[in-house]
Amino acid sequence: MKLPRFRLGFPALGLICLAVAAHGCASSGPEPSPPGWTAEDSERLVALYERHRLPGLEDRRFGYDEYWGAVLPAISGNRLFRIDTAGTSAEGRAIRRVSHGEGPVTVLLWSQMHGNESTASMALADLFSFLGSDPNHPLAATIHGALTLHFIPMLNPDGAERFQRRNAQGVDVNRDARALVTPEARALKDVRDDVEPAFAFNLHDQGIGTRVGSTDRGVAIALLSPPAGPSREVNDVRRAAIEVAGVIRQAVNPLVPGHVARYDDTFEPRAFGDLITQWGASTILIETGGWAGDPQKQYLREVNFVGILAALESIATGGHERVPQTVYTSLPMNGRRIADLKLSGATVVIPGLAPLRADVLVGYADNLVRTGGAISDIGDLAEAEAMDTLNLAGLFLHPFGPALDTADGGQLQPGAPAHFRITEDEAGDRLLWVFEGGPPDAQREER
Known about the structure:
Elements: E1 5-7, H1 39-52, H2 64-75, E2 81-88, E3 94-100, E4 105-111, H3 119-133, H4 138-146, E5 147-152, H5 157-162, H6 183-195, E6 199-205, E7 210-212, E8 221-224, H7 236-252, E9 260-262, H8 272-278, E10 282-288, H9 298-317, H10 326-329, E11 334-337, E12 339-344, E13 347-348, E14 356-357, E15 359-363, E16 374-379, E17 386-391, E18 396-399, E19 404-405, E20 411-412, E21 419-423, E22 431-436, H11 440-443
Parallel strand pairs: 4-5, 4-6, 6-10, 8-9, 12-17, 13-18
Antiparallel strand pairs: 1-17, 2-3, 3-5, 7-11, 8-10, 12-15, 13-14, 15-16, 18-21, 19-20, 21-22
Helix pairs in contact: 1-3, 1-9, 2-3, 3-9, 4-9, 7-9
């Protein structure tokens, strides 16, 4: 039996949208680049990426040794780089700082302060490859002479080792800029105090279910100039960050047209981006979302490389000063965030309880490869949107194994693993397939 399925996702390169979901798919159309940048400018940086992409990081779930095993051979012994230890993680891993350049303007870039947000770490590895292996390229020479760059490409190595957001102590490092209770936060603060950057780049990944404004388009890149306080005023420090964010929009727009958004700028007094702005650096947040057919974020790795390199070029040349603030402020905001999977219209059969007609929302632990599905809601969810929807009307969902909280009388609870037998009858004799928290197509077992 073939089950009806709908998907609301990200477009493949050159397409408008993958499919039509419950609310349809608004066409993004070919969004023109803002003034001052052309598709040829982006292609120039894409060519550098293709020439200097560092091998060994094709799977985004890499650990500490894998990352540095790929990066260190490209920079160790190269006189253009200086490598030192910024601090030590909770479990004793060295937090490495890589420095490059001899210019008067200091720039600090850090990535993977959330251990499972690795896209920018890959892009920084590619940037090392370009700067180190092609120093006579006009852009590399310009950056080297005008800027002094300090990179911390894996701020939370313990979290990266587990591919989890928080550090080994269970703390979100990006909510520790004020208290500084974690060694990772103290390492970043020490480097900031040491180099006193004029510009800072806070590099993250965000949920792939986030939409661009009120559209059905997924966000590939979200940008933010973090405020220095609750008033969110635009002073000279923040104005420069807004200009650089505009440069990034210009550079990445030809690669992900219609899929760039602006992150919410509500002041967060515990967050590093906000406080580093407060401490005097023009700070730019880059949040990477998702892209269809890119579960390992290799295409978005390229987009990051292009955006970061364009930003550094603009700082080195002063080109950002010619970019109107409206290039950034006219971006649509990050919009609603939709669920990963909806199992719609089935009758849920829980042992010992009366059957009930209910929808079930499932959230994946890794929603790019769709594994580790857990129940996030159950009930009347007719208005709930999801990246995938399976129409199970007329069928029966039988939770089994870890999906049942047996200590609570067999009650189905949010947070439980999404393990279901899907059958044609209430008794469960006519099995169609078994869902065990993974991709619906991969786990379907038709009878």
